[in-house]
Prior knowledge:
Blueprint: H1 12-17, H2 28-34, E1 47-53, E2 79-81, E3 88-90, H3 94-98, E4 103-109, H4 116-125, H5 138-145, E5 155-158, E6 175-176, H6 200-214, H7 225-231, H8 233-241, H9 244-249, H10 257-260, H11 267-281, E7 285-290, H12 299-324, E8 331-337, E9 340-341, E10 356-357, E11 361-366, E12 374-376, H13 393-403, E13 411-413, E14 419-421
Parallel strand pairs: 1-7, 1-8, 4-12, 5-6, 5-7
Antiparallel strand pairs: 2-3, 4-11, 8-11, 9-10, 13-14
Amino acid sequence: MSNHKYCxxxxxxxxxxxxxxxxxxxxxxxxxxxxxxxxxxxxxxxxGIFIDLNGGPSHIDTFDPKPDAPDGIRGxxxxxxTSISGVQISEHLPKMAQALDKYVIVRGVSHTLAAHxxxxxxVNTGSRPLASLEYPGYGAVVCKERAVENDIPPFVxxxxxxxxxxxxxxxxxxxxxxxxxxQGSPFNVRGISLGAGVTVEQLDxxxxxxxxxxxxFASMDGHDQLLTGLDRFSDKAFSMLSSERARLAxxxxxxxxxxxxxxxxxxxxxxxxxxxxxxxxxxxxVSLSVGGWDNHTDIFNNLSKKLLPKxxxxxxxxxxxxxxxxxxxSTSVMVTGEFGRTPKINTRATxxxxxxxxxCMFMLMAGGKIRGGQVIGASDATGAGxxxxxxxxxxxxxxxxxxxxxxxxxEFQTETGRPITLVREGNIIPQLFS
Length: 434
């Protein structure tokens, strides 16, 4: 996917790299050195998918339209009915409109962080960011709580994303593919595919050499987090490199034409296809990232011609594909940006846009025990704020974890032994499960 530049001048690519390895955002090569799965814990869904709409999508022009609002607020788009009576969404989301029975629209989600980085950290963890602590993303927690076989990566980010391991440690960081799949082509992830004529036998000899080299570092501090991860590198990397299962998990060209057909050619839609295949192959958590939503200008052209078609095609095909493979009931899905956009269309440019607006946004939830076909929460008549009690990102996070059978109030410990509550202030939204 292309790199998108935020309005504050930070490129999406650079934003993801901020903090480097200490923040738990890893390249594939680093991931193979450091990743390790955690322990199984019984629950509802057993796997998760997080779709990050970087930049902040407009709620009014997507899943929370205001057709009766005044000019300058309602926007250029008409609304269309969905498969659920009385619920309407943007005309540019026809496939999502027909798939509403499989997901829930959460409206009137509200917070106060209008900066991209802070808002992204908030929705990727469910806890309001602190300067003194980095909370783990959903994928890191799921990997800690859910075991996975050694020859398959537990947590994959396509192509990268805002999910980090935080205080849980870099062994729970995602494996970034660093690229997006292309329609009809095998997706060769560097470090998993055996290229350049390398055979498994040659790899075995190199594995033995690595073990010999590891003994040279035996006198170093065994409690250092990086060294602990490096100690695990050889076995994990060898298992994945020599595993046909791992290589096939990333090969979307192996999917039948009938199953692949609903996933369009856009890299995001193909990434949704890959996400379904990875979950089916045993990957515990997949995060997807699609940018371009920071539309301060020309918002209606950008949405109608570029962003909404691929969101519509990708997410609807993902939900339908999970259901077709019998995976929707075991996969918890969340779709969100870091905030919404202002109700009032700005006039700073000839082609109008909307600005950052955390006071009102939408999130989508699906899978597991979540009952699809609902709208939960509401915004006021102009989309300026919640109509009633606000739903916080913390509440959605608590519900996402609950759907996975993970107690959001449990305590984890930092490397220094400090006890930290997973989601500090969230409450489960009971309507999601009723």
